[in-house]
Amino acid sequence: MLFRVQSAAVFGIRANPVSVEVDLSSGEKLNFLTVGLPDTAVRESGERVRAALRNCGYYLRAQKITVNLAPADLRKEGSAFDLPIAIGILGALGNLPKEPLPEHLFSGELSLDGMVRPVKGALPMAVMARDSGWRHVVVPEANAREAAVVDSVRVYPVRSLAQVVQLLSGQAPWIPLAVDRAQLLAERSSYDVDFRDVKGQYQARRALEVATAGGHNIALIGPPGSGKTMLARRIPTILPPMNFEEAIETTKIHSVAGLLPESKGLVGTRPFRAPHHTISYGGLIGGGTVPRPGEVSLAHNGVLFLDELPEFQRNVLDVLRQPLEDGEVTISRAAMTLTFPARFMLAAAMNPCPCGYFGDSTRECHCTPPLIQRYLARISGPLLDRIDLHIQVPAVKYRELSQQETSEESTAVRERILAARRIQNQRLAPFGIYCNAQMTPRTLRRFCRLDSASEKQLETAVTRLGLSARAYDRVLRVSRTIADLEGRESIGASHVAEAIQYRALDRTYWQ
Ligand SMILES: [Zn+2]
Known about the structure:
- By secondary structure, the protein is an alpha/beta fold.
- The chain has a five-stranded parallel sheet. Strands 1-2-4-3 form a four-stranded mixed sheet. It has a three-stranded parallel sheet with strand order 5-8-9, with helices on both faces.
- Strand 8, helix 5 and strand 9 form a beta-alpha-beta unit.
- Bound molecules: zinc ion.
- Zinc ion is lined by residues 353-355, 357-358, 365, 367.
């Protein structure tokens, strides 16, 4: 007897329909065969399913059980097929009144005692179910909230195989999980850090506001303990709030990476990812036989923070070029090629020299100029080219630390940034871009015209500081953002002067 159950296989951030077919035939001993490109975890499913069935009171006789996962040319991986396979076996044994309707999707790993354990990628599965016109999604309780954010599908959380049997045999009612999507997004979009907690560091805060307003990448240079990480961690709190589409996309990535906390359901805050400098190529970009998203994708719609930038492997940093340019990464493996979204704001931090105290007023630096040069040269030119602002973050003075007055809240900063972003969006939308950092040379010439006074000032700076032609463009871009923050149509000398300050690594004394 053949019994069929619908399920899904997740690749990248997309799910594909998989039909689980179970056939029983007589045999001399119990024989369990899984066909249809299963990986090891899927093949081992037989053992888990048998134990789970036994612990629910179903004993398998000596017979041949064939599980076919169709379509056969699609790779199947992981343990999420346990539940549909168990249902298929029970059905084929005649323990269920009828096959579940084809518009029901089942996914879940089984523990040996018959409990249903969480799976990766429940959200993409629910999206696939909706797009295929399937109405019902049965997933582990721990994944139900993330699946339920998808509209037009009913999501049923299940805890155990026994409960699924009750549902399928009509002994328990189907009750979908109700989720108020708008409320969920509102609940999930508050941050646990705020710029209010940062004492002093006025210059750095201003630079971060400018960077965030224009979508510019930024590098923070300062001695250990100056608060670079603390500052960077607060960037997401001043970025525009995520809309529902962005939240779903970010959640999908975290869902397939298996990083979604149970209770969460939806990633409503912009991610902040801070991988350690020992991270591998695969860890940063994504990898594995069936590729999983790396840090650049986990930072999608948020911030990728690279602390101790010169300590990263050079070849690891070089792979950042594609995501920084295209907003996505393509990972090719023998098994398949997958593309993951990876649009993030890059924030990097570094010490000014190997010991960390170059230019510091409180401690002496013994690093020789060649040593410092070698240290700085570790950051590759192409990467540095994509960082519009580099600023010095000095150690905070005691006076600033001990002051009583509170700093400005993130929401207040964010209001100014939103206003500046609206101006940019209006101006740049016809060109298919939405913030100043994305301006091409053509749009740059068009929207960053300088009057003669500002032009002269910039020329002087270029000569005095020895700025490159590339740096010139970056100053223009950032000047545009500063003018937008002020709501000015034209770029003035004060905007250019401020933007020039944000080129710390271009200053000749450092090289
Ligand atoms: Zn030093």
